[in-house]
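Bench log, entry 3. Co-assembly request; chain sequences pasted below exactly as received.
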Amino acid sequence: MIFHRLKTTLRNYSPSPAKLASVISLALILLSWPLPIFFNGMQMQFFGIPFIYFYIILVSPLLILFITSWAVNVADKLDRNQLETENE
Amino acid sequence: MQKPPLNSSASLLLMYTVIFLLCILFGALLKQIGVPGKFINLLMFALVVGGYIFSGLFGKTMLLPVFQNAGRTGRPFYTGQAVAAGLISSSLFIFLAGDFYSTGTDALTIFSGFILGLALMAVLFSAPVNRSQSPTLAGLIIPNDGSKLGRLLILVIVVITAILLLHVQLSTIGLISKMFFNISHQVAVIITAVTIGFCILLGGLQSLSISRMIAYPILIIAFLAPLVWIAYQITGNPLPQLSFGIGALQAISEVDQELLNAGLVEQSDVFDLTREGLNYDVFNHFSALLCIAFGTAAMPHLLQHMRVLPKAHSARRTSVWALGFLLILITAIPAVAAFVKLDIYTSLLGLQLSQLGQEASWLFELNQNGASIISICGTYVTSASQALAACGVSGEYFLSSKDITVNPDMLLLSSGVLNELPDLMTTLLATGALIAIWSTADGLILVSANTITEDGYRALVRPKSPTGIRLFMSRFFIIVLISISTYLSLSIELDARFAFAASFALLTAGLFPALVCRIWLKQIDHRDVMIAVFLGIILTASMLWLSYYGTDVVALNGNEINFHLLLITDKIQPLSMGFIGMLVSFISTFALTKVQHMRSKQKEHNKVKSDVPA
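Structure output for the full assembly:
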């Protein structure tokens, strides 16, 4: 249910291009550096790698790729909407 | 009508990759029949040179729009490969693994910075650069009838940062040319200049796109093939990204624990990729990471590829593809450091000095070739007697981890030898390093030459110059820039890491704020932005100069100034200076805009007052 709602919200998300760019940029910066600090005390290991390190070298890059790819799709959609509005 | 060369990207890519693989097989065959390794190395060198000559000839053009934007015939997938190959420079391909090995979490600034930078490029700049009609970044920042001084400032930033990065690439050539290809540094730099010059002179951005695109698979094969081999050999799992934890890190930590318990090493000597960095505190780590990210996002030699695409959405997709292609290589780099450390522990640690000749003769052979890879007691030893003399002890002495030092600059290139892989794998790594250097250097020269032509010659000297003359001038400036950078790299010694940091710092303090303000905050006047950028650049450049040269012109002789921020950091690192410069640029822009706004309001108010009849 929550997943479905999130999916619908993300699909219908339609902010201004500048707002989208700033929100996504901040989210990407957050994923790259400040967020790992909160995991610093975790002793867990994944594939023999401490979790904080595993997060920085594998999880965070993949999350960044995923979010960027999503943001690019939304930006394309905004471009199309703007073009349609101009044509009308 | 002739088909545009970039429309054949798929077949070009396939053809060059197949030729490369066939050359590897041929090399293996030659090795089997006893042909010396240096001939096989030269064969691979010739293949790389051939790739560049082919790209130049295949993409050659006499049309300025094709020279400057490849006729907008690129495709996202293939242009993404070109962007990734352009970003994978010597700093990333050769040095980053050594940084992980020697500086702990300091290396994560470069690692995360490059990834974040490409993501920001996709979100912030790729589409606007694609939509811009101007062939340079200055055209995006300054309107056609705008400030000429502003254009000149952008030109200076682009050219200086390119020359600094070019210096890093060309000075690194010496590391590999002598050791692997038996070519002296001077000859290697001249061959580099001639080859990449030939390629971009003929076809400009079209040839550059082809050469970078076909370079990417070679880079990946050259980097991953030896690493996958090592990972499989040690752990049975061919994925280095996932296998180095269990396969290497845990084994290393067990040995370290035993050594600690026996009192043979101190906690500071223990190998831990996650240990706190040597140079970066929290402030420097954060600011250096952002500096690399913002510098990467605004890097002109990568952004020029966005003009190759026909539409804005293709440009965005190109950046996402480039990010994906970068991740394939960069996420495997920490594994190199771990596997090399494990190999040193298993092959050298605990050996008696008298046994070195029988058990680790490869070490002496490496150092005899002038490779300077592993030092014993601080000396690159070539015999057991030298090792005894260096350590000043008897032959009974057992080597401990603090006696063995690895040269971080050579870590990746020596990983094949250290893990006893066939010589061909080391040849592959050297070929990959060569391509990484060339595929960055060519774009830097091209973007600088186009910028000087458009923002210098056309905007300042001859605004109505015909396209034929501009094409000629672009080619002329390519030759001038290649000559200058060749001369500089052979005559001036500049620390490669400092040049890299200075280049990113200037890009972050100058180009990034200018692009953000003019693309996303359109209400800000370009003159305010340029004044603010000038302040940021002057501050950053002064800090960089004073921290490297000090009050004289002799580098690092003790006269240099150590900048610090009270209660925040004891030493501001060069990359962090770019971050501070960027903050100054942004704050000055907003302050100037506010002042202009207040002045125009005051003027309006005065006008209204004067219009009202007394």
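The radius of gyration of chain B is 26 Å. Chain B has one domain: 5-62+71-339+421-589.
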